[in-house]
């Protein structure tokens, strides 16, 4: 299975437009051979950021969606009119505590990103028991999954709240390599789902070295504005 971890920051006043574009594409997305699931989350630690996480049967399925005409059109609208920034990582699922029905973890590629700081990401989904609140403080979430404030090899950690499922929380952990991720103890119990993804491509709006598509360069100006963007 493959995972697409797409973190996006819509420009001011554009979040609803982004979600509307995503909703309009949903029927097309569900018709792609090899598509498994997709969910969106709002960042609790970086206001304004949204995570779209999708799962695919294999890399060919991801390519089918990437080359879909409607998706490509919306991508261009997003890049030039809706997004102020984004970070996209594509990788192969190396473990899944609750794999989707009819799908198994079967590794086919063993290479990793050459430019991204994180070579592996762990996604931990937490769904509280009925009547129980989700962790209100990110520190409480880290404690619940066994992570301290300082973890060697952990190069990024984010907390996201599901846009579609009330109370559901996702922890996105970025590791310098597979060995570093062993610092995360096994997570057991109802309400937890843990997936590991070896990152193969890592790119964004301002660094597209590993992107499979060409767009004119965009660079950050000293005042925070963007040069090279229409």
TrEMBL record:
Keywords: Monooxygenase, Oxidoreductase. Residues 209-230 are annotated as: Disordered. InterPro entries: ABM_dom, Dimeric_a/b-barrel, Jasmonate_Hydroxylase-like. It comes from Methylobacterium durans. It comes from the Bacteria. The keyword Oxidoreductase applies. Pfam families: ABM. One of its GO terms (molecular function) is monooxygenase activity. Residues 1-76 form the ABM domain. This is Antibiotic biosynthesis monooxygenase.
